[in-house]
Every structure is written in C-alpha cells, then in structure tokens.
Amino acid sequence: MFHVKGIHHIALNCRNVMRVAVFFRDILEIPIPLEQLAEGEPIYFQFGDMTRIGLHPCSREGTNGTGQIDHIAFSVATHDELDYLVDKLEAENICYRGPIERPTSYNLYFESPDGHHLEVRLDKDEFDDT
C-alpha cells in the first residue's frame, strides 16, 4: 500500500541563495539559521508543523510554464498580519499587488529577489466580519 503523508519540501532554484534566504528571514520573518550555512550549498528551512522549503544554487535562468511551479502561497490568520506585511513591503520598497479581496480570501502578491512568485493569503471564514 502507498500513502503520501505530506510534502517533504519545495525546492526553489536561486541565483543567490543567501540573498533569497535573507529575504525570507527578514520579510516573512521565517527563522532561518544563516550562520550555519556553507557557501554554494542549499539552504533548507522549516516553518509551521510540516512546511519546508529548500533554496538551491542554480546559475541557469528558469522558465514559467508547464512543469514549473507558478507560486507559493503562505497563510496568515488575521487582517493585522496582512497589513503588517504590506507596511513591511512598502518600507523595503518591494513591489506588490493587493491585498485583493476574493470571495473566500484576501490575497497579497509579490516576488522574492530571484523572481519567485509569492502570495500571502488570509482565508475568510464564517467569523470574518469584514
């Protein structure tokens, strides 16, 4: 019997692994122990119970299309967290789009320094009064 219990990690190719790791640490406030890294090696970090991302050194340019990941969507729990991130993106002069209100969520879009498409999403629920 075969049973997938979850995703172990998502690997992102990066021209500059350290710059992308610092972005995830500083902008999304994901704890990444940068002092233990070796030059030219991948960086793996975990947040939440099971979410793991690997940043892999890569010198070739990627393409966006069939066979490629389009974006990664992160979840937040409150409007305050979404507003906090907007303020942070503005302070760092990072281009973004949103938050866009959709029928079931509010969605904020931006990119990592290497062009990875990122989304931060606040799901609406029956207790949401906005």
Could you characterize the architecture of this molecule?
This protein is α/β, with parallel strands linked by helices and 130 residues long. It folds into 2 domains: 1-59, Roll (2,3-Dihydroxybiphenyl 1,2-Dioxygenase, domain 1); 70-130, 2,3-Dihydroxybiphenyl 1,2-Dioxygenase, domain 1 (Roll). The chain is built from 2 helices and 7 strands; from the N terminus they run βαβββαβββ. A 4-stranded mixed β-sheet has the order 4-7-6-5, covered by helices on one side. The longest helix has 13 residues, at 79-91. The radius of gyration is 16 Å and the shape is globular.
Helices and strands in order, then pairings?
Blueprint: E1 10-14, H1 17-27, E2 43-47, E3 51-57, E4 72-76, H2 79-91, E5 96-101, E6 105-111, E7 117-123
Parallel strand pairs: 1-3, 4-7
Antiparallel strand pairs: 2-3, 5-6, 6-7
| Protein structure class | alpha/beta
Sheet-strand content, in percent, reads 25-35%
Could you give the order of strands across the largest sheet?
4-7-6-5
CATH topology label of the largest domain:
2,3-Dihydroxybiphenyl 1,2-Dioxygenase, domain 1
Work out the oligomeric state of the chains in this entry: single chain
- Based on CA inertia axes, which overall geometry fits? globular
The low-confidence runs, each spanning 5 or more residues with pLDDT under 50, are: none
Sum up the structure in keywords.
single chain; 130 residues; 2,3-Dihydroxybiphenyl 1,2-Dioxygenase, domain 1; four-stranded mixed sheet; three-stranded mixed sheet; globular
